[in-house]
Amino acid sequence: IWIDHELNSNSVVIEFGGYLGRWSKEIQNRYNPNLYIFEPVTEFYNQIKNHFINNNKVRVINEGVSLIDEDKIIYINKDSTSVLKNQDYTKMGYVENISKFMSIDKILEMTGKIDLCQINIEGFEYELLDYLIGCEKILYFDKLIIEFHFERDIRYQEKRNKIRSDLEQLGYKQIWNY
């Protein structure tokens, strides 16, 4: 489910939240699509960039996805890195950094129609998907892999259920859910 898709070398694939690029490496090895990887943390970006340095079909972009072009404080701690601060991250080993973020509208102008998008952006997925659904730009995406992140707050479960329902009403079919 994670890497089995109907893709080919002409497909356009995006990964939001590349981290170390594990998913992108699998997708690229299997299908050789036109791949865009957005990773706002320079340390993680450099690792991904070095892996794909000789592949001109892969564009690794040292920015995150947002609703507008902006610089944001990001809290860095391996695969839990996030722009959302809901806890005392300094006690948990997180490091604050300023990172660049590109608007989803600018990204869609750059890529056009997207065959597959993997979203793993540590809590910001709710705001991003609400925006894309609300303006129907979600229809740029043929298939989505979304990692929803929950806080202990029940409102996140309600938001997730609403997004899933909205996607279904727009014709998206859920294949797997955990």
Which characteristics define this entry?
178 residues, alpha/beta, three-stranded mixed beta sheet, 30% helix
Brief summary:
By secondary structure, this protein is of the alpha/beta class. It is built from 5 helices and 8 strands; from the N terminus they run βαβαββββαβαβα.
Helix content: 25-40%
Give, in order, the helices and strands: EHEHEEEEHEHEH
Q: Give the DSSP E fraction (strand runs of 2 or more residues).
A: 25-35%
**Unreliable parts:** none
Biggest sheet details: 5 strands, parallel
Q: Span between N and C termini?
A: 12 Å
**What is the mean predicted local confidence, pLDDT?**
90
Query: What is the radius of gyration?
Result: 16 Å
- Coarse shape: globular
Order of strands, main sheet, comes to: 3-2-1-7-8
How many beta-strand segments? 8
Number of helices: 5
Name the structural class: alpha/beta
Overall description:
This protein has 178 residues and is of the alpha/beta class. The chain is built from five helices and eight strands, in the order βαβαββββαβαβα. The strands form two sheets. The protein has a five-stranded parallel beta sheet with strand order 3-2-1-7-8, covered by helices on one side. α1 (22-31) links the parallel β1 and β2. It is globular and about 45 Å long. It starts with 11 loop residues before the first strand and ends in a 9-residue tail after the last helix. The mean pLDDT is 90.
